[in-house]
Specification:
The chain is an alpha+beta fold. The chain has 5 helices and 4 strands.
């Protein structure tokens, strides 16, 4: 009986001791974390706005031959992506033409330089390859380096 009373007394004293304590919790997180969480929710919900800007792409294929154009466009895209897997390729249909355009370049010079690289890799398509002005999806780098530019990003994808 004596042991039970002592045990109950100890439990009551420890409960009152811990119940009387107050404290604060400090959470340290990067300043951009809240905006990233918000963006992530927007993307998952499908409410995020697509960012586009005026830029340049390299057109590597265009055809209006009704029976062969679509298959030809996807074949050219496949061949291109095998050689340049890190560069985006866009197959579009604008009646009556099927087109394949590649890259997202902010300057004409970057696109022209890349078009020459493509011509070297695909000499059979050299006469069809040229630079076009188009809305692009810009590349942003945020690795803490203030010297990060779209030029560096385009070099990375080559």
């Amino acid at each position: 009986m004596n042991k039970k009373v002592v045990l109950i007394f100890c439990i009551l004293v420890s409960t009152m001791t811990f119940a009387g304590q107050t404290g604060s919790l400090t959470l340290n997180q990067p300043s951009g974390l809240d905006s990233l969480v918000y963006k992530s929710r927007e993307i998952k919900a499908g409410t995020a706005k697509t960012v586009e800007s005026q830029g340049f792409r390299v057109q590597i294929y265009s055809s209006n031959r009704s029976q062969e154009a679509k298959a030809g466009a996807f074949e050219v895209e496949k061949s291109f992506l095998e050689v340049f897997p890190d560069t985006h390729a866009y197959v579009t249909y604008s009646a009556p033409f099927w087109k394949v355009r590649v890259g997202d370049f902010s300057t004409y010079f970057e696109a022209l330089n890349f078009s020459n690289t493509i011509k070297d890799a695909f000499p059979d398509y050299a006469t069809e390859i040229f630079v076009v002005k188009e809305n692009i999806k810009p590349i942003y780098l945020d690795n803490g380096d203030n010297n990060s530019t779209v030029e560096n990003a385009n070099q990375d994808i080559r």
